[in-house]
Recover the amino acids of this structure.
């Protein structure tokens, strides 16, 4: 089935109707879709709000109190749409005023179709690039905020652990040592045994704290055992049934890939436990040719992927943004498939880089 070609929508702002109709005909011949004609700046702003064109082709000299430059400034500031000026006036003072509205092009009448097409294509391309840059900048700001918040939350958690758990244990050991100086015989042996028990418990707390920050399995044995461990931890904490499958004999991957994959699965399991209302989760790790393929699948309630991506691009869904950023940093691609009542499938593709290649 052929894919429908989406034509860029262009609003023509020209107070001479005959000229406007001629421009519309030329635009259609060039493969664009005219969405209306405005003869005044006020009407141009109304049509922009109603039609949401991709670009506005604006004459500077318009009938009424608002000329094209003022209208262009409002359209740029309120709707962030590209404006190309189309005019017979090239005086320096007009050009100086026109620059203040940040136009995406300036075409003098009379013009050739080729010239018009070139200016419009460059303006549309520049606008798309600008929109992508704005989106990326917004995402980076959101991720930076998330990183700072996560750092502070982790520091707070570690501080509480140190104060409430380790601090109390060390205080108990100190009291026992002080008491052991004053007693003899069986009481002293009991104090020593109690101190040893507290030390063993404290060591276990330290190991647990260190594992929570970064599991040693990831560094010592690699990604597959670390994913098996996190699957068991996820099952214990959330009540989920988590299965972890991986091909036998997978070699160690580059450290940055192993870390990124581990953190992506960690975030995915957290999201599933919080939002998915799932019972079963499957984690799969395999190699396909020169790529690593990792998948996390659940049988939960699912969600609207397009809406989620919209929230992510607007600075929400920071967990998704974080996973996407980790995938990008290792040269990978993250795909998310989901629908209401059909669960969710998250799949990561990235280049296979062995551990030896990173040293």
């Amino acid at each position: 089935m052929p894919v429908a070609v989406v034509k860029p929508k262009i609003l023509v702002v020209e107070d001479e109707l005959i000229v406007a109709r001629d421009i519309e005909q030329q635009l259609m011949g060039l493969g664009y879709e005219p969405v209306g004609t405005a003869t005044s700046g006020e009407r141009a702003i109304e049509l922009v709000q109603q039609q949401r064109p991709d670009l506005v082709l604006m004459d500077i000299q318009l009938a009424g109190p608002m000329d094209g430059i003022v209208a262009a400034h409002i359209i740029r500031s309120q709707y962030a749409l590209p404006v190309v000026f189309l005019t017979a006036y090239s005086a320096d003072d007009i050009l100086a005023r026109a620059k203040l509205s940040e136009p995406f092009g300036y075409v003098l009448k009379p013009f050739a179709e080729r010239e018009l097409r070139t200016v419009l294509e460059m303006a549309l391309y520049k606008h798309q690039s600008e929109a992508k840059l704005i989106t990326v900048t917004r995402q980076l700001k959101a991720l930076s905020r998330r990183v700072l918040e996560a750092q502070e939350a982790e520091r707070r958690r570690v501080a509480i652990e140190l104060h409430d758990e380790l601090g109390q244990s060390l205080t108990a050991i100190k009291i026992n040592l002080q008491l052991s100086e004053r007693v003899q015989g069986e009481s002293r042996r009991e104090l020593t045994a109690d101190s040893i028990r507290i030390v063993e418990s404290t060591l276990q707390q330290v190991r647990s704290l260190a594992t929570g920050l970064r599991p040693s399995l990831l560094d010592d044995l690699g990604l597959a055992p670390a994913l098996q461990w996190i699957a068991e931890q996820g099952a214990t904490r959330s009540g989920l049934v988590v299965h972890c499958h991986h091909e036998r004999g997978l070699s160690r991957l580059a450290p940055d890939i192993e870390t990124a994959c581990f953190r992506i699965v960690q975030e995915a399991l957290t999201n599933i436990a919080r939002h998915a209302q799932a019972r079963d989760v499957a984690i799969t790790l395999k190699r396909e040719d020169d790529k690593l393929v990792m998948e996390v699948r659940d049988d939960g309630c699912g969600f609207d992927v397009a809406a989620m991506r919209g929230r992510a691009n607007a600075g929400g869904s920071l967990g998704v943004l974080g996973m996407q950023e980790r995938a990008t940093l290792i040269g990978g691609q993250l795909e998310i498939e989901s629908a209401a009542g059909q669960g969710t499938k998250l799949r990561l593709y990235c280049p296979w880089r062995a551990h030896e290649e990173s040293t």
Observations:
- The mean pLDDT is 82.
